[in-house]
Amino acid sequence: MSTPASSKPANAARPLSPFMIGPYYKPQMTSMLSITHRLTGLGLSFGALLLVVWLSCLASGPECYALIAPHLAAWYGKLLIFAFTWSLLYHFCNGIRHLMWDLGKGLDMPTAEKTGYAVIFASLGLTAGVFVLTLV
């Protein structure tokens, strides 16, 4: 007996992609760090635009810089600078990790998890170091 062409196969309810985070897929360290790497890359693009605006105002003279300076000194400006700095350092540290993977090193799951934690702690530590050095 043949099935009609319009009927769905019995396995149609199964998930089609491992990116279905939730009831079908348990998030893993490597997948979460990969998603974060992509998001920080996107954030760096927007941060670069803000950096261009800041440098343009700086080069245009004191009147133009006076328009942006209060925003940089406000809490939201400092938060943006902190987020941009962390994104840059996270992306850098995770990029080094990816370079090691390209060399065929650290591909086993225990090492990948350890280097993932190293990337997280290194990026946070470097970001804290940058802010401690710039506040002094």
Write the layout of secondary structure elements.
Blueprint: H1 29-60, H2 62-73, H3 75-102, H4 109-135
Helix pairs in contact: 1-2, 1-3, 3-4
Structure notes:
The protein is mainly alpha-helical. It has a domain at 36-47 and 74-135: Fumarate reductase/succinate dehydrogenase, transmembrane subunit (3 helical TM bundles of succinate and fumarate reductases), CATH 1.20.1300. It has four helices and no strands. α1 crosses α3 and α3 (75-102) packs antiparallel against α4 (109-135). The chain is elongated and about 65 Å long.
How many strands?
Answer: 0
User: How many separate helices?
Assistant: 4
Which class of the domain at 36-47 and 74-135 in CATH terms?
Answer: Mainly Alpha
> What's the CATH superfamily of the domain at 36-47 and 74-135, by name?
Fumarate reductase/succinate dehydrogenase, transmembrane subunit
End-to-end C-alpha gap = 80 Å
